[in-house]
């Protein structure tokens, strides 16, 4: 256990960088030019990547080669908690200030500026929750103004739906504005069609799992933690006009399925132990399968910036994941209570993280009250929703542990022959 | 092209079996005992499986070995339409009555009774539509009795949601009755919890795709057909009490995510050419991206049987996929209009297929009017929803082409420590 201990590394610049010895996130990288090089799994230390295949091949890390044979972390995730924990301990030993192996490891470090991160996992299934009370209330008010914003099931179960796994992309992948049907101008009329006018982001925290129990049994909440490998920042891009027209009665589909961006470095659950806090109170008390004596939320400061094309960065959101109503282990226990299988590489995201202050809402639809109150950016321009060329950057930090960032630029929709 | 031509095979029993030369479905099989043998891709002819790796290795089929290296059809699906079509033509030549290679192929045939089918594809994403007008109307009436059964978007877009890809299973895999929260007895009270009391099936027709366009452009409806490899029968098992409590506002989640069963043999799209019929009229006329001059529905007779534990088979549903409102190519064009990527092995299912006669509804909730009118089975017992030990069998046939069957038995829910 490394909780609360200050750790120092021999790697130049690592200490205090947010990616020091207490973090050691996992990702997958390619050398630039990325098209001609294969991708390889790595651990990040400061501004370096350390190839995990190299460590195995040189005998510095004792894991089966299958752990990192693929250009993603799925093989490693399949190995489960003991392997994750043992690997982390070994990496801390190799990279710590008093490592006897520094001379062997140093030549294996590659500067991040020579690399491009790719998607760290092949996502089998992507579940998106709706775990923020403030977000669910805000959205209910905007989408169903005539009724109670929070439906009667919301406080009893972590509402969720399945997103599109094939649309999960890594940070820095551009996002094309989606085309689609939108609510007709006249009620009962023909739907409008065109590029989404109300393109939005959603600030979320996600976690990536190992395999669930082999027998198709639910993951008990008392056992859920050990299935969680680590956490990423998630931007669940949302097309509000498409969503509004399509989402009843079966939920969001094309309004969400065009892109979901992940931060490239998965921060191990163990690195976030010091960020654990008591979750907020739940009323009514959840059913027994959602109760754990030592449940935890994560105290991660989160922010969102918007950078117009050629412009300066404006900080538009400051919030924290500690305020989420439903916790990660409740999410996992709920998602499997019906026997649904969980596979290594599965992604579970929190849903938009909103607080109760005006600048703590994790989406533009909330920040602008459904587009009625524009934000003024540093360059003097206004935004209700995203414009072509805008870059959205989300960052997260828990004390000395950085979650890095997830970034994406909006590209215009090119005309197609099919519209 | 083989349309309308009667084809005869030298394989004993193939002609007239539903799996003759005009069908040639693809699947993946294992020798029994299945645990100790690897799975291999095969084509079915009559009651035999012909290993596709064997055909490549013996030089009888000219495809890259990557086509069938994996224990699923994904490698083959990646090759795209020309390879699918060329392979089909070659198989027809090898297995036809005047094949010069019959003596070489004959030793490669393995009787199906010595094999067990496994899941034919690794599903990247599973999209479930809601394409039957009658089903959507029936369900709207049952779930929202106080309002119009068909929402205003339904006739303008093929409503859909993402199901859980990791819960897709092959026919004959038992299905455990799921646990979960259900609507409270008192409005505003605490949810009930326990095994699903209203376990149901849904009769659907699914299709499996190759890769979509590499550039993330939508699949044009004029081009959609060539991305469809073939069709399977789908039982989208449904937990109605769980679904009713959870599904608003983000759609079905645990009520569906515990199991979706597929028939093991994927019938190539080309084998179903003779089953093409003009789709039903759509009013209002769909937007241009959903219009094709030669759109088609499939005239496939479908039936569902229920077999109680130790009892006789009762035929409880007779319907046809030709009555579906939204067509396969409309489904694919719609699902990608926002730029969502499609990957080889993706599954698109129609949603429950219901007609307008009382015995043509593709789910128990419709057949029994929400559990109010029990069905009487041949053994004299009654059913509103499924009982433990019940086996559901779905079969499909288009002229001389059989879609085989998808079968599953309901197992009781074993108590867990987490409930």
Topology:
The structure is a homodimer of 419-residue chains.
Chain A: E1 26-31, E2 39-45, E3 48-51, H1 52-57, H2 74-79, H3 81-95, H4 102-105, E4 109-111, E5 115-118, E6 126-129, H5 133-143, E7 160-163, E8 168-170, E9 175-176, E10 179-182, E11 192-195, E12 199-200, E13 203-209, E14 228-235, E15 238-239, H6 240-246, E16 260-262, E17 267-268, E18 276-277, E19 297-298, E20 301-307, E21 314-320, H7 328-336, E22 347-349, H8 364-367, E23 375-376, E24 382-383, E25 391-398, E26 401-411
Parallel strand pairs in A: 6-22, 8-16, 9-26
Antiparallel strand pairs in A: 1-2, 1-5, 2-3, 3-4, 6-7, 10-11, 12-15, 13-14, 13-22, 14-16, 14-17, 18-19, 20-21, 20-25, 23-24, 25-26
Describe this structure in words.
Two copies of one chain form a homodimer. Chain A has 419 residues and is α+β, with helices and mostly antiparallel strands. The first copy, chain A, contains eight helices and 26 strands. Helix content of chain A is 15%, strand content 27%. Chain A is globular. The interface between A and B is large, with 74 and 74 residues.
Largest sheet of chain A: 8 strands, mixed
- Please give the alpha-carbon distance between the first and last residues of chain A: 57 Å
Structural class of chain A: alpha+beta
Chains forming the largest contact: A-B, 74 and 74 residues
Identify low-pLDDT runs of chain A: none
Subunit organisation of the chains: homodimer
What proportion of the residues of chain A is helical, as a percent range? 10-25%
Measured by DSSP, the beta-strand proportion of chain A falls in: 25-35%
On the 0-100 scale, what is the average pLDDT of chain A?
Answer: 95
Number of strands of chain A: 26
Number of helical runs of chain A?
8
User: What is the general shape of chain A?
Assistant: globular
Rounded to the nearest angstrom, the radius of gyration of chain A is: 21 Å
